[in-house]
Amino acid sequence: MANHTLEGRTLPRQKRGDTDLVGQIEGTLIDFLATQINALDTIDPALSRFAQTACDLVLGGGKRLRPTFAYWGWRGVVGPDEPIQPVLPAIAALELMHTFALVHDDVMDESATRRGAPTAHRIFATQHGQEGGLGDSSRFGSSSAILLGDLCLIWADQLLARTPLSTATLFAVRACYDRMRIEAVAGQYLDVLGEARPSEWSLERALLVARHKTASYTVQRPLQFGMTLAGPSQSSAVDEAYGTYGACVGEAFQLRDDLLGVFGDPAVTGKPADDDLRTGKPTALLMLARQLATPTQLTRLADKPTADLIAETGAPDEIESLIKERVEDGVAALDEAPIHPDARAALTQLADAATHRPA
After folding, report:
1. How many domains are there within the chain?
2. Which residue range is the domain that position 161 belongs to?
3. What contacts 7, CB < 8 A, 6 or more positions away?
């Protein structure tokens, strides 16, 4: 099987000659976005520039994990010989939804960089300042970024609608897609709420946030979304296996993100290493550090959490154990699932690649 590299790990590609899954996703996005930019340009040239910024963010790197999980969710049901072209719009649409989530998340976290480049609100704020716009540049940047995120979510709907599906399949796919979006928004709100009420948070609640904010729309629902693209009458055993695998691997993905948010190398992750500590985000890592801390360490954590102090509590090692347990449980859920062996092998490999990464 051919492979595609994900930050030092290997990701499985689709098994069809020399075709490249990620390349086909990129091509689908490029073609779609070109038409959207042209359409907005006919209204006003400023909108063309706005849309081009959105296009740059969509295509500016990223792991393409969500479309990849959706692909293997679909491939696990249909087998290795079904042509991918009819479902490419639906699979690629998940990347537009992801961009919506990232842009809004960066505004809420006031993050300066993403993937090693300025975040959307920083791009617009810089443009506003350089061009002598009236008013506050930061506010202009945030307002513009929110609109850009909204646009990406609308584009995701439009691209999904280009997928040739029967009426029954379309309704099933839309139900899964809508559930994924609702859970992502719910998890994001709980994340914001946790920053406002850290004293009310716990490890269990932090894991609940991880399950909805990240696991749901990164792994679990994309897998089930892909399965549903094959038709609405799929095996409940496959749905259950995908659900368990997705929840476990998705949580492990977020736990790795928590570690990278404190201990990651910004040159590799593409974003500052202190964002979570700066905002006081009650991640599972911080909640576990508080549980394990001595009274003296707990006082210091309350005053100012630092990477060194969190490491002193032993919390990173415990998080590594939680990641290992979840990956093992997720992969085990596929053992007896009635899916194609290629998909089982690919998802096993993906579980490792997605949860053991430097960025």
Report:
1. 1
2. 3-355
3. 63, 268, 357, 358, 359
